[in-house]
Design goal:
single chain; 269 residues; alpha/beta; 5-stranded mixed beta sheet
């Protein structure tokens, strides 16, 4: 009982000291933060912290190039992308692109859901021209319709408004090439335009390719137009000598990864 009384008296004395009109030291006013990139105003740190830039770049997907003057962050972003490609291992073949593009990932930029526009240009002056060639090429385009990279392709009437132009030639070269794709891209790794050439013959001495082979060539070249490199496994449609008729699981996985990371240089040296 005596202990409780003593505690009550002590508490009362503390209250009297706090409420007494005596002088107390006055704290110095808080100086505003000089670095305006951290805080927009004089709100409390809890409020202002929500305005700070995130520590981790938003991988995968919408990562933009690091701002100028931040080479360390830029290097870390490149290393993160390289590590992700390495983690996928043999499930993808995206690393083969880096050997031919000076370590640059090349793909079409994000278009906010807008499809890539494709124009099919026939040439009735070719000696080997026949009805149905345009439909064969369209079938090659449709082979990529179901992809997990959310890329859609739509046909347009003229090449002037097209992102991808499909043309036909008697043969591509004297090296038994059946098709070729010229993909134009800028220094940021963003594809700007693609022109596909489908050869009707392997060379000047060979016969006309069968429809099934022409379709396979179209599927393969559309893969290049979307940004895919060559694969080293023959089961993939993107193998240079593939006998497949449609994109494989690895083809789709590589396309999905390509569009899950940002385009641009991955050089780290």
């Amino acid at each position: 009982m005596m202990t409780r009384i003593l505690l009550a008296v002590a508490a009362a004395l503390v209250v009297l000291i706090i409420l007494s009109p005596g002088k107390h030291p006055v704290s110095e006013p808080i100086q505003p933060v000089a670095d305006s990139t951290l805080f927009e105003d004089s709100n409390t740190p809890e409020q202002a912290s929500t305005r700070r830039a995130p520590r981790v770049a938003p991988l995968p997907g919408a990562l933009e190039q690091a701002p100028s003057g931040t080479p360390f962050l830029d290097m870390q972003a490149r290393l993160a992308i390289r590590r992700r490609i390495e983690r996928e291992g043999a499930a993808v073949y995206l690393d083969s692109m880096l050997a031919t593009t000076d370590s640059t990932l090349v793909r079409w930029p994000d278009r906010g859901g807008a499809p890539l526009r494709v124009a099919f240009v026939g040439d009735t002056t070719l000696a080997d021209w026949k009805d149905g060639l345009l439909d064969i090429a369209r079938s090659g385009m449709r082979a990529w319709a179901s992809n997990q990279a959310n890329i859609s392709l739509v046909e347009v009437d003229t090449s002037e408004t097209a992102d991808i132009e499909v043309t036909f030639v008697t043969f591509v070269s004297g090296e038994n090439e059946l098709g070729v794709t010229n993909l134009e891209w800028n220094s940021a790794g963003e594809a700007r335009r693609a022109v596909i050439q489908v050869g009707l013959r392997a060379d000047s001495a060979s016969g006309l390719l069968p429809d099934g082979e022409l379709r396979r060539v179209a599927v393969h070249e559309f893969g290049h137009a979307l940004g895919l490199p060559h694969s080293t496994i023959r089961d993939d449609i993107m193998h240079p000598s593939s006998r497949a008729s449609a994109p494989s699981r690895r083809d789709h996985a590589t396309l999905r990864l390509l569009y899950a990371v940002p385009p641009g240089s991955l050089r780290v040296d």
